[in-house]
Amino acid sequence: MARKSLWPEIEKRLPEIAKWAKAGIWEKDMAANLGIALATFNVYKNKYSALSDVLKNGRRPLIKKLENNLLKMAFGYKITEKKEYTTIDKDGNKVTNIEKFTKEVGPSLGATCFALKNFDSDHFQDNPAMAKIKKLEYELKKKMAEKDLW
User: Fold this and answer.
1) Please, is 42 exposed, middle or buried when counting C-beta atoms within 10 Å of its C-beta (0-12, 13-18, 19+)?
2) Confidence band, pLDDT 50/70/90 cuts, at residue 130
3) Strand partners, 97
4) Cα–Cα distance between 87 and 111 in angstroms, integer?
5) Which domain holds residue 111?
6) 104 and 150 in one domain?
């Protein structure tokens, strides 16, 4: 006998799932929170566009924030730090001193490489020769498929 689908119960929790996606919760943890196996979660994700859309749209702000942080790391940035300390003056009174200073964080080579490889992969790759071979291979397979030689 086939097991009853849990999708109707999962569907009711789509707003909650959207919040989890926005918070960056892993899918295996979402499945556990819903009381289903990760495999079942993946089946529902592939079968029901409502779930896959909720996950995609829920992650969009998180992805945008990560992209912005990546670019910030790639270009370098400045931060303002505040140091607060208390001293006692010559009259015995407590005096709170606050020092503010700006610190410059230099660009990260790793973030720069990662950003270039992902944002301009036509010009920046680990192995351009291999990429060219893969592109030619793709074109050949495409032609073979068109001629039913595949």
Assistant:
1) middle
2) confident
3) 85
4) 42
5) 7-119
6) no
Distance CA 74, CA 112 (A): 4
Q: What is the 3-state secondary structure (H, E, C) of 83-150?
A: EEEEEECCCCCEEEEEEEEEEEECCCHHHHHHHHHHHCCCCCCCCHHHHHHHHHHHHHHHHHHHCCCC
Average pLDDT value for the chain? 91
Q: Is residue 1 part of a domain?
A: no
Q: Are 75 and 103 found together in one domain?
A: yes
Q: What is the pLDDT of residues 25-59, one digit of tens each?
A: 999 999 999 999 999 999 999 999 999 999 999 99
Are 44 and 54 a contacting pair, CB within 8 Å?
Answer: no
Q: Say if residue 83 is in the same domain as residue 134.
A: no
**Is residue 144 in a domain?**
yes
Per-residue tokens: 30: 């979402």
| 33 C-beta neighbours (distance < 10 Å), count | 13
- pLDDT of 73-97, one tens digit each? 999 999 999 999 999 988 889 999 9
80 lies in the same domain as 148: no
Domain count within the chain: 2
Q: Scanning the structure block, which residue is given the tokens 């973030």?
A: 111
